[in-house]
Model the fold of this input.
Amino acid sequence: MAFNPIPGLWKIAQRVDRAFEVQEKHGKALERLTDQIAEMQRRLDALELREEVVIAKAQGAAAAAATSAAAVSMADLARRLGAMEERGRMATSPQPQQLPPPQD
Done:
């Protein structure tokens, strides 16, 4: 019986072919994953930009609310001080000031 190397070479060739097919499939899968990661990175960058806009708007709204609260508080304080000054003037004046009687 003679040694026939062809069946062994055929099996090796088939294995090499399968290895190249697997490598090609894995290469395509890696390319898809790379594309997906790049897309996710773009989306993340867009979300970070939106987050900065939201933060800026929130800071502006907080500043407006603080200004509004301070204005209301200052107006209330001015009104109360005015009322206290008027009471103080009335308490120190000898007679309350009255309008003169109407002249016919």
User: Anything to note?
Assistant: The radius of gyration is 44 Å. The chain has one helix and no strands. Helices lie at 6-92.
